[in-house]
Specification:
The chain contains nine helices and 19 strands. Strand 10 and strand 11 form a beta hairpin. Strands 9, 12, 15, 16, 17, 18 and 19 form a seven-stranded mixed β-sheet that branches. By secondary structure, the chain is of the alpha+beta class. It folds into three domains: about 120 residues, RNA polymerase II/Efflux pump adaptor protein, barrel-sandwich hybrid domain (OB fold (Dihydrolipoamide Acetyltransferase, E2P)), CATH 2.40.50.100; about 50 residues, Dihydrolipoamide Transferase (Irregular); about 200 residues, Chloramphenicol Acetyltransferase. Helix 7 crosses helix 9. Bound molecules: isobutyryl-coenzyme A. Isobutyryl-coenzyme A (CO6) binds next to strand 13 and strand 17.
Length: about 425
Amino acid sequence: MASFNIVMPKLGESIQEGTITKWFVKEGDTIEEDDMLFEVATDKVDSEIPSPVDGVITKINYEEDSLVAVGEVLAVVSLDGEVEETEPEATDSKEETAKTDEAPAKAETTDASVDDSRKLSNRFYSPLVKTIAKEENVSFDELESIEGSGVGGRVQKKDIMAYLESRDSSAAQKESKPAAPAAPAVEKKAAPPVSVGANDTVVEMDRVRKLIADHMVMSKQVSPHVTSVVEADVTDLVIWRNKNKDAFQKKYGDKITFMPIFTEAVAAALAEFPMVNSSVNGDQIVMKKDVNVGIAVAKPDGNLIVPVIRNAEQRNLVGLTKELNRLADAARNNKLDPSEIQGGTFTITNFGSFGNIIGTPIINQPQVAILATGIIEKKPAVLETPSGDVIAIRYKMYLSLSYDHRIIDGALGGAFLRRIADHLEQFDINRAI
Ligand code: CO6
């Protein structure tokens, strides 16, 4: 019986042992490569460990809650599907031991390096990752450049898929160009079966759609979302924009829409509320110095991509307009460089373009908040004047903010959102272009 030993992986430079907090499999289970085997916890990281091989679990050596040293054999997998007769006292037990003794070398290298790159790399690439790399012509250098989201920076399937997506979305498509992946995904829960009738049409998701789907599921699993909504009277900024639109284009060669003005307001509010411009890292909150605003762009193929306006708080309205137009154009034409979709610290999604008013956007991990801007519409509004209340026709819009309730409570989220609305409402109608 060909067997493979699953060993306790090295979960970090200084980590020598880990506690098995959960087994997802039991003896006799048939497993496939990348199926989750167990969950392990250390004082630094918790992680779920996938199987590097297909086979049948023939032996589990440690129960849940056992503290196990790195390199110890945790379980044995029969690679040819034969289930070993586990009788410790049997006369052939020595022979069995001898057989499995061959495997630790494999197993040990499994978490160091098991492939052709063993001499060159300390990183582990699962057979699945290597197969994808081969099929997609990902060079060894490219593979080495991918930031792994797994234990100890291990490259997982989702990382290489994210890399391929960003590579594909770049017109340059330079195979040697490193690109960090999108935010990590997590294993999807099994969905209920779907019956397909004779008149139904089945459409295969493309890779980008699968990545978006994974990313959305992951985000909802990672952070508890809550959404607050405010209404803003944006009459002055609409009048200003409509009045200056042509002159702005003539002067700067770029069309100005409302998006740069929204972005300017968001960047100013983020500078005032740095906790919203942050990420959660375990039990730590990482407050980002740069204000890098991602803009959700709908692509002609129906997919969505989020290029990033870097240091938005340092740019004026002309700079924001030019960068937004450049990035939106590049996004729609698959010309974004992978670096242009990385490093965002906050995202704006403008579904007002579709005539939508209010929504509950999903956070773009590892950020902690996302703003949706609804359509600007004329509405009857009550205005207080020195001579009494009047009803006037005003331009109004809703702003919806989804935020990560792990670190942002309603008071902070609400105050931040109101601040964006205040910036928009206080737009100087006499501003020079
Ligand atoms: N109100 C009123 N008018 C608007 C608005 C709003 N919110 N947004 C755009 N527009 C106008 C805009 O001013 C343009 O009019 P003119 O200047 O008078 O010509 C026109 O609509 C077209 O604007 P365009 O979309 O071309 O440019 P804009 O700079 O406003 O937006 C963009 C750039 C890249 C954000 C946009 O093109 C885009 O791709 N938007 C879609 C983003 C998206 O798909 N988000 C995901 C939505 S799903 O979030 C979601 C919560 C869930 C449901």
